[in-house]
Amino acid sequence: MSAKLGSAERPLRVAIVGAGPSGFYAAGALLQQKDYHVSIDIFDRLPAPFGLVRYGVAPDHQKIKSVTRLYERTVQDPRVRYFGNVEIGKDLTHEDLRRYYDQVVYAVGALSDRKLGIPGEDLDGVFSATEFVAWYNGHPDFADRDFDLSRENVAVIGVGNVAMDVARILAKSPEELAETDIADYALEKLRQSKVKNIHIIARRGPVQAKFTNPEIKELGELELADVIVDPKDLELDPYSQKELEQNRAAAKNLEILRKYAEQGPTGKPRRIIFHFLRSPREFIGKDGRVVAIKLEKNELRPTESGYLQSYGTGEFETLPVELVFRSIGYRGLPIPGVPFDERRGVIPNKQGRVIDPETGEPILGEYVVGWIKRGPTGIIGTNKPDAVETVKAMLEDVPKLRPVADVYADPQAIVKLLRERGVQYVTFEDWKLLDQLEQERGKAQGRPRVKFTSVEEMLEAIRAHREPTPVS
Fold first, then answer.
1. Measured between alpha carbons, how far is 378 from 373 in angstroms, rounded to an integer?
2. Whose C-alpha in 1, 40, 444, 470 is 20 to 30 A from the C-alpha of 224?
3. Cα(375)–Cα(368) distance, rounded to whole angstroms?
4. Among residues 238, 171, 232, which one has the least CA distance to residue 200?
5. Is the pLDDT of residue 466 over 80?
6. What is the predicted pLDDT for the residue at 402?
7. How far, rounded to the nearest angstrom, does the alpha carbon of residue 398 sit from its chain's CA centroid?
8. pLDDT (tens digit, 9 = 90+) per residue, 65-79?
9. Which CATH architecture best describes the domain 115-328?
């Protein structure tokens, strides 16, 4: 190679695996830097881009979804290409990526969920919130899930924003949901819902709850549901009181919860009931289906680091429920050929550089961003500074890189490989067509969009309206 790596004659070739927020923020940071010329290819397993924004953000939070306009500007830069419907580990291997790209960035998020590890967790009727959220958002992997909403009593275990989303979607009226981009099949199922009581179970107290002020406030604005809080659950131990004094968001949450406790039930047909300082110890079943949860009451005690840990008191109670959604955190899944920390559910790294778990040394040319880098923490915007940190490391490493061979660095080389393998990749132009079709279908119903919910349905729509546009 005669041209210098990162020059106009030989741009730095970068593959980003994952077209969610962290992947787009990484691409955006690479485009904004002035040190090197770059050529970026973004790959996603699904035809539609935007990952968590499309399939994780609640359908009634359309304002949050508007962040995709920023991502669209990124991918429409001539230095960026989008390859949807390309699965790494199947359509392209880890070895392929290293052969065709100078640097590879993994932005695959956290697709799995954490388990409680208690008896009865495999009973029928016990699900992860991950499954339910993906189902009502029209994720193709989860469109065929079946949740029995003919049951009256539901438990949501956890007090993060995802748990609040699940409770809110279960509690909303069909009319409220019909104004969103919730999946058609989910809307129909929720129209027939018999759910009355939604129990939210938190192992620690109200001060330690992870939901944000807008999420807890939103529950009080529901047409069909009262929010029920036991005033005794809001009595704080000295440690929580001290923590509250240093946390304005927690103080606001507590203020909102106290209003709910004072108001009590108003006669609405559904109830969202909070249970603080409770830990599930067993799911009780009958004929293979969950019928109740055994809960242990907790107290909080500080650890050496000051963290308030919950400890069981030995006092138990049984809560009748026929449907459970576990919302205690996400975890990443391994990518074939890429190091993986099984305990933490992330790709091991230092400031975004993937490290060899045996030597602890960085693997030059491999990087990570987002939840698969740091674990499932923060909000969508948290991924931006996270990506900037990784891109800084990438740029520092450019002088140390061994550039890939010119024959593979040619942008058309990866296109040729995908065609040879018969991969029907989706370009951003193809996605814009799907986006337009979804919005047109939604307009007919007075909704933001009606989503395509299967990969084949998406590919058929592309074939029917346009020949796939070659990536150039």
1. 12
2. 444
3. 11
4. 171
5. no
6. 94
7. 31
8. 888 999 999 999 999
9. 3-Layer(bba) Sandwich (3.50)
